[in-house]
Amino acid sequence: MKNRIENSQFSYPIDVAINPKNGRIIVCEYSNRIQVFDENGKFLMKFGSQGVNNGEFSEPRSVAIDQRRGRIIVVDTGNYRIQMFDENTGDFVSKFGSKGSDDGQLTTPMGVQIDPTNGLTFENQIPMNHSLIYWNK
């Protein structure tokens, strides 16, 4: 029998981001979901599940808040992409990336942060090499 993980319980939390504007706490779980809490730790919502479609994840590794656009940014490592979600609803907004080493492709995306000047910065890990990619859209 498979254990069911309830809201506000964690299964392999791997990264956290805090929105300084409203205090929301975003927790990225290796178990393919994102949970959102208010500044007091009260559960607000969750989104994501295992899969390859929009809004689904395969081994998400990192999360960040884009305050300027009101987005939650998730590094979806196993699907070789970056996904963006509405900060208030958790609804899928957009994605970019695919598997590969050409322009616009990712080998192993691992981390993300928002630079107020340059926009989105994420780490793309290539065996024995790392690269930082800047994306400003």
Characteristic key phrases:
137 residues; Neuraminidase; 4-stranded antiparallel sheet; 11 strands; mainly beta
Give the CATH level 1 class.
Answer: Mainly Beta
Count the E strands: 11
* CATH-assigned homologous superfamily: TolB, C-terminal domain
Enumerate how many helices there are, as a single number.
Answer: 0
CATH fold type: Neuraminidase
Report the helical percentage: under 10%
Q: Provide the succession of SSEs.
A: EEEEEEEEEEE
Low-confidence stretches: none
Overall mean confidence score, pLDDT: 83
* Residue fraction in strands: over 45%
The CATH architecture comes to 6 Propeller
Give an account of the 3D structure:
The structure is a single chain. This protein has 137 residues and is mainly β. It has one domain: Neuraminidase (6 Propeller). It is 0% helix and 49% strand. It has no helices and 11 strands. It has strands at residues 13-18, 25-29, 33-37, 43-47, 60-66, 71-76, 81-86, 92-96, 109-115, 119-126, 129-135.
Topology:
Blueprint: E1 13-18, E2 25-29, E3 33-37, E4 43-47, E5 60-66, E6 71-76, E7 81-86, E8 92-96, E9 109-115, E10 119-126, E11 129-135
Antiparallel strand pairs: 1-2, 2-3, 3-4, 5-6, 6-7, 7-8, 9-10, 10-11
Tell me briefly what this model is.
With 137 residues, the protein is mainly beta.
